[in-house]
Amino acid sequence: MSCDANDFRSGMRRLAAGVTVITTCLEGQLTGMTATAVCSLSASPPRLLACVNLRGATYRFASASRRMAVNVLALHQEQVARDFSSADKCLDKLFADADWRDADGLPVLGNAAAVFECLVEQMLVMDTHAVLIGSVARVHVPDAAAPLLYVDGAYAAPVAPSFISTNDRVIRRTA
Fold this sequence. Notes:
By secondary structure, the protein is of the alpha+beta class. It contains four helices and 14 strands.
């Protein structure tokens, strides 16, 4: 069985995802990339996984340093997402333009919706990408910050309706 790559991409564009910037540092050099292929792996012990392209600096730096930060972008940080997704990005300028802070050598975004500081525990290489499994050392979760989403090729805000319809049933959300 085979699937057309364009059909696959079209289907995956419908999968709404939180937007992150994965950052890392190697010998004083910072790098980062926008990523939506990030998810929790386990809560005990706390682990997450992030998928990165093997050709990118983020993979090279994270595989050598064995450290990364996953910065979950807040709704007001769409420009940060756009900047770090650019192929011709000037990293020095990008890290100077936003509220980046040093966390034991890792660049973390000061006003992100959440930040996960990780040790890269394992890497699984598959064709053009690697799955980085991060053991979470620290989590920063500020007070209320709505996350930035990406769906159908566009950045979006989460919608929190009072009622959610599921299989012709209406469920009342409780606070």
